Amino acid sequence: MSRRPPGSPSRTAHGPLTRSGFLSSHPLALMAIRRVAAGVVTLLILSVLVFAAASVLPGDAASAILGKQATGQALADLRHRMGLDQSIPVQYWHWLTGLLHGDLGDSAAGFASGGQVSVWSQVSGKLGDSAVLALCAFVPIAVVSVLLGVYSALRAGRWQDHLISVTTLVPSALPEFVLGTVLLAVFFGWLDVLPPVSVVAPGSSPLATPSVLVLPVLTLVGVTAGPAARMVRAGMLEALGADTVAVARLNGIAEGRVVRRYALRNAIAPSIQVFALVAQYLVGGLLIVEYLFGYPGIGKELVDAVSIHDNAEVQSVTMLLAAFYIATTIVADLAVMVAVPKLRTGAA
Amino acid sequence: MTGTSYSRRSFLRDASAAGLLLGLGASSLAGCGRQPSMAQSTAAPTGAPKPGGTLRIGMVGAGKGESFDPSAASSALINVAMTCAVFDPLITYGPDMRLRPALATSWTSDASGSAWTFKLRPGVAWHDGKPFTADDVVYSLQWMETPGSGLGPAVANVDTAKVSKKDPNTVVVPLKSPDTRFPETIALAWIVQAGAKDFTKPIGTGPFTFVSLDQGQQSVCKRNPVYWDTGKPYVDELRLLSLKDDTARLNALLSGQTDVMAQLPYAQAKSSISEDFWLLRSPGLTAQAFYTAIDQEPFTDPRIRQALRLLVDRQQLVDVALNGFGTVANDLYGRALPYYDVALPQRTRDLAKAKDLLAQAGHASGLTLRLQTSAAAPGMVEAATLFQQQAKDAGVTVKISQVDPDAYFDPTRDYLTMPFAQTIWQGITSLGSFYQTALLKGAPGNETHWTSQRTADLIDAATSAPDDASARMAWDAVQQEQYDSGGYIWWGNCDNLDAASKKVGGIVPGVSQNLGLPTSLAEAYFVA
Fold first, then answer.
1. What are residue B322's phi and psi, to 5 degrees?
2. Whether residue B231 sits in one domain with residue B314
C-alpha cells in the first residue's frame, strides 16, 4: 500500500474548501475525507459486482426453499413475494435504495416460514458474536506478535530467532480448518477439556460461556501470530538498523534505552499496518473458523445465506464486511500518520 | 419426501480434503481417550421417567430453510421435528406405523368411503389460549391446498370446498373419490389455527410451545403445561441444534453438549459410539435407487432397463454404500408400507441373463452409459462407483459425472432432466403418495418420465378401491409392471439410525422417521 504524503499545499491550494484554511492546515482531516469518499465509491462498485455475481449463480432462493415443489404456480408465487420476478437492475435498485433508508431487505429465512423477517434481525446478534470472537483473537495476536517479533529481532540470527520462526510458522502454514481439526483432536478428543462445538444459548453472549471461544481463538491466533510476528520483526530490524540507533549507540546510550526510545518508536508505524492486516484477515478467517466450530457468527450466517441463494442477505452482509475492511485500512493509515510526525506535518 | 434433506451444502465440503480431514478428526476422537465398545447397544436405558430437564438434540441443519411451517416443502428432518414439537395432526403414527388418535379421537366413514367424519378431542387449547375447534380443522384442510404446500398430497382427494363442521367437535370431510384408507392419507397432516399463514412465531396445540428460532443455529421450545396427553411431555425444554456437519454433530453428542444425535452416519456408528450411548436403529421407509428416464435413449428399450436391474449386486451395495445398515430392496419402493407386494421374488444378480438381454437389444459388443451422481445423500456416490464396477462385468461401461448436490433435487436445475441418475425417497407413508408423486404425468417426482395412462388408471383404482381386496389387486398390478419394466432399480432400504445418551429414555425407534418421530418428542425423558 503506497502512502504519499497527502495534504501538501500545492495540491490543495485550488480546492474549494481552502478558503477556510481548515483542510490545508489539517492534512489528517483532508486525508480522512478523501479516504472515506474513495471507500464509499469502492463499496458501490463492489455492491454491483457482488450482486452481478450472485445473480449469475444457477438457481435462486425461491427454488432453494421449495426444493422438489419448485414448479408452476408455487414457484411463481414465491418468486413474486420475494421480488425475484423483477429484472436484476430493478432488484439491485430496490436493495440500494432500501440500504440508504437503513433497510437491508427481507431474509429468505422468513419466506421459508411463510412470513417476513428482516435481514437486520438475522444478522445483528451475529455481528456482535463475531465481534466478540474477533476481539478475543485480535488482542492475543497483537500481544504475541509484538513480543515475539521484537524479541526475535533483538536476537536476529541466533537460535532463539530460529526457534520462534519455526514454531510460529508451522501452525500458520496450515489452513484454518486443518489447524482447527488438529486442535479439536487434541483438546477435545485426547484431553477432553474443551467443547468441540461452540453452542451459545439464544439471547446470551458467548462471553457467558467463555470455553466456547477458546478453540476458535486458538485457531485464529495459531494461523495469524506467526506471519504477524515476522512482519513486526522485519519492522523492528529496520528500525534497529537506522542511523539514529547507530548514533545513539555510539553516544554510549544504554542498549535498553536505545531499543525503547529509538528503535521501538520507529517500529510502531509498520506494526500498525500489521495489526490492520490482521484485523482484515480476521474478517475472512472468521468465516471458516465459525463454520468449523459451529460458532453463531456472521461468517456462518453468510455461508448459510449463500447456500440458499439469499441475495439480499449475502449482499448486505458482504457490504458490512467490506465496509469494515475499508474502515480498518483508513483508520490504520490515519494512525500511522499520527504516529509518524513526518507524515502528519506534510514535511518532505 | 426427498433427498434434499440430506443435502450437505457445506462450505467445507468443497474445500478439497476438508471432508477427509474432518473424517480423520472423528476417527482420532474414537482412537484416543474414548473407548468405543465392540458391540453397541441398541437397548433403551431402563429407569423411570424423571420429569424436567432440557433435552438437546443435534440435528442435520437445513440452514436458512429451517422453519416451523408445517407445510414447508423442505422435508428436512429438523423441520419435521420442529413441526412435531409445536403442532398436532388429526391422526398420527406410532413407531410401529399403527395409526394413533391425536386431535381426532375417532373417525368413521359412510358405506362407500367417500365421506369421513372426525370426532375432535374436546378441551384442547392452542398455545395462545384459544380453544381448538372444528373451524381450525376446516381451515387447515383448505390451507393445505396452497400451491407448493408439502401437505398438498394429503388433501389431493379431499373436496375441500365442501368440508364442513357438524358441531364444534365434529368435522365431515367429503372426498372426490372414495378412499377406504383415507385415515392413512390424512395422518400427519398438521392442523394449524384458523387463519394462520405466517409461521415465524408458530402457535400450535402440540407438546411444546415455541420460544425462539435462529436458523442454522438452534430452536428453543418450552413444555406445553396444558398438553392434552396428560403428563406429557416429560422434559421442560426442547432445544434442536442445527449441526450440519456430521463430525460436529457426533462431537457434540460425545462431549455432552447434546443428549441425542439425529442421523448418525453409518460409518461412524461402527466406530465412534461408546458404551455411554445407545443406538436408535430401526428399519426405515428411506430407500435408494438408480433410475432411468424411459423416454431417453437407450432406456426406451425395456430390455436394457431389465438388464440393468439384473446386473446389480444389491447385497454388495448395501454392505458397502450403507455399511450394512439396511436391507436389499426389490426394485420397488415402500417395503414397510401396506399393499407392498411381498410375493414378488427377490431379484438377484444374473449376469448371463443381463448380457443376453443386452445382446437382444443390439448391444452384444458392449454399451456405454453416463450416470449422474451427487453427494446429496450418504452412500450415493459410493453406490455409483460400485455400480460402475458391477456393470463392467456385464460389458456395460458406466461413466460417472458428479452434479452439484444443490441442483440434484431442484427441478429448476437438474432434477427430472437427467436420463440416468440416483434418488432417495423417505418419509412416504403410503404407496398412494409414492406412486402419485412418481408415476403420474407431470407429477413433481416423475424421475423416470413415466406417462402411461394405464398405470395412472391403476393407481386411481387402487387409491379409490372400495375394499381391501380390490385395492390389493390394483396395487399388485402397478408393482408388477414396475418390477418388470419400470425405470427404477431400487437397491437398498436404509435403516433409520440415531444415537442417544444413556440418560435419555422414552424414544422408541420407528419405521416412519428417524428419532422415533413423530411421537417421540413428547415421550422422551431423562431417566431417574
1. -105, 10
2. no
- B187 with B118, same domain: the answer is yes
pTM: 0.83
CB of A67 within 8 Å of a chain B CB? The answer is yes
Rounded to the nearest 10 degrees, what angle do helices B314-321 and B380-392 cross at? Answer: 140
DSSP string, A262-285: IIIHHHHHHHHHHHHHHHHHHHHH
User: DSSP of B313-343, one letter per residue?
Assistant: -HHHHHHHHTTT-EEE--SSS-TTSTT--TT
Distance set, CA B82 to CA B92, B221, B234, B239 (Å): 15, 9, 17, 10
How big is chain A by its Cα radius of gyration, in Å?
25
Residue B237 lies in a domain: yes
Same domain? B85 vs B173: yes
Q: Which site among A123, A204, A304, A309 would you substitute to test the B interface, given the most B Cβ atoms closer than 10 Å to its Cβ?
A: A304
Examine residue B25 and state whether it is found in any structural domain, yes or no. Answer: no
CA distance A215 to B75: 34
Angle between helices B18-31 and A176-184 (to 10 degrees): 10
Domain count, chain B: 2
Question: Each residue of B196-213: pLDDT tens digit?
Answer: 999 999 999 999 999 999
- Domain around B411: 283-494
This complex has an ipTM of: 0.78
pLDDT band at A99 (very low <50, low <70, confident <90, very high): confident
* φ/ψ (deg, to 5) at B55: -90, 120
Q: Are the Cβ atoms of B251 and A199 closer than 8 angstroms?
A: no
Contacts of B243 in chain A (CB under 8 A): 197, 294
Question: From start to end of B374-415, where are the E strands?
Answer: 396-402
> Are B215 and A66 an interchain contact pair (Cβ–Cβ within 8 Å)?
no
B124 plus B215 within the same structural domain? yes
Checking if the pLDDT of A20 tops 60, the result is no
For residue A106, the 8-state DSSP code is B
